[in-house]
Amino acid sequence: MPRLHAIVTLSTSLIALGLSPVIILSQMEAGYSQNNPFQNPPSPSPGVGQPGSRVPTLNPENLNPSANPLIFPTNPSEVHIQRLQPLTLQQAIALARRNNRTLQTAILNLERTRAALQEALAAEYPTVGLTSTFANSDSPGSKLGNLRLPAGVRQPSTTSTTLDSTLALNYNLYTAGQRSATIRLQQEQVRYYELGVETQSEQTRLDVTNAYYDLQQADAQVEIDQASVREADRSLRDARLLEQSGLGTRFDILQAEVQLSNANQTLTRDIGQQRITRRQLVQLLSLAQNVEVEAADPIQEAGTWQLSLEQSIILAFRNRGELQQQLAQRNISKQQQIIDLAANKPQVSLFANYNLLDVYNDGFGPAGGLSLGARLQWNFFDAGAARARAAQAQSNVEIAENNFADSRNQIRYQVEQAYYNLTSSQQNINTAKVALNQATESLKLARLRFTSGVGTQTDVINAQSALTTARGNLLQAIITYNRGLASLQRAISNVASSPR
Question: With 70 as the cut, is the pLDDT of residue 34 above it?
Fold first, then answer.
């Protein structure tokens, strides 16, 4: 009865103001659903298409940075954002694998190590060198001798021109294992850096994936904030309308104004965070200075994980490059130990030299001679320096073994942590879906009660806020789940061969 009396009073007041109570009440009820992006299941971020939408086309020439890594802008117009490029997650990963600076550094380290291997392989072949000297000399002693001779008597010319050339071939016949150990060491170095590139590629994929999900979350949060601003603005308009009709108070208007002010502040803060997350993704992708990106994928579950925890752990032990790197480091230290010990062992080398000498204007032609031989070098005493270096290498072997065991334990923990997080996130998605259905039904009932004169406008506002929160919780649960799946894929590595 009190509620019916209030409706009658409101209608009387509206008629007195010359307004139609039916139109006003219909507009108040419709105001809660007008322009409400959460009325139906939304695309969770601005500009994001529904699943199955067209993949945005890319023009790498407009996205990639300058080919000169040393260039830097000097004009503000060069860093002004001129293009907003939508990106899918897969496109972002592809750009990162091509442009990411950390990954490119790892690739350059690999190329440098491959060149060092070629240098080590060159020791298996002999070296050939040519030394040639062309000289024109005038003997001071001959000149003094001519001065002492009687007048009219002179010795032959004191100037001589000679060509002296030596062709030398050298080959290290026996190096006490030093040469072969150096080659094997460089081969293990190449393997180590190949694994490093693989590891960095997987880490880059995870970093870009997390940055992309951060952007999706920031976009969704901005949309939720915008809905909150619209709801607060509608509440303020309703409060003013009620105050004009004599059913509201100035206190209700002040509360609504505070609510709108707080919602606007939250929206402003989250828009700033959205811009930051966009720039973070641009930095990871190392794009051109005037490019901005936005997420083009809808927020939805990225996939499922089919393996058990135990199978996931075994797969991680088999795939993770970090474990193989420790084994490569162990082999490197073993080969270094062989190289160090070889310093105290005999070294045998062969040489062949062909010497050609020609003195011009002496009446004779050039003369040549060949010399062959072997050379033994043996530093049998160095006060223990070689053995000390070998002992250091042995310590490095044990350190690599210890690091292997530590990495193995860390990898298992990472898999377990990601697996448990993924499981709990999946449960949260199911819970959030139930809460979303309940909040949707609650809003329908609140509107029905309001139009029937049983409920209040506050009930509708609260139901709308609860629905917005429920949709935000579902979006958060999905993003958390996707992050957990990406972490599990990284913990196992080699995503292309891992189950989805």
Answer: no
Q: What is the tally of structural domains in the chain?
A: 2
Model pTM score = 0.76
Task: Return the structure tokens found at 481.
Answer: 């789940």
User: Is 36 among the domain residues?
Assistant: no
Quick one: angle between helices 178-245 and 2-16, nearest 10? 70
Residues 429 and 464 in one domain: yes
Q: What CATH number is given to the structural domain containing 339?
A: 1.20.1600.10
Segments forming the whole domain that contains residue 467: 301-344+386-500
Residue-wise pLDDT for 382-433, tens only, equals: 899 999 999 999 999 999 999 999 999 999 999 999 999 999 998 999 999 9
Alpha helices in 149-249 (DSSP H): 178-245
Query: Residue 243 domain-assigned?
Result: no
pLDDT digits (tens, 9 = 90+) for 352-391: 999 988 887 766 778 888 999 999 999 989 899 999 999 9
* 87/181 same-domain check: yes
Joined tokens for residue 323:
């474990």
Q: Which long-range contacts (CB under 8 A, 24 or more apart) does 27-33 make?
A: 28/238, 28/241, 28/457, 29/447, 29/450, 29/451, 29/460, 31/234, 31/237, 31/238, 32/231, 32/234, 32/447, 32/460, 32/461, 32/464
Place of tokens 């997420």: 295
Nearest to 225 by CA among 260, 277, 275: 260
**Token pair for residue 473?**
């919780």
CA–CA separation, 414 and 38 (whole Å) = 37
Q: What is the DSSP string of 112-167?
A: HHHHHHHHHHGGGS-EEEEEEEEEEEE-HHHHHHHHHSPTT--PSPSEEEEEEEEE
For residues 488 and 426, state if they share a domain: yes
pLDDT per position as a tens digit, 67-121? 777 777 778 877 777 778 899 999 999 999 998 999 999 999 999 999 999 999 9
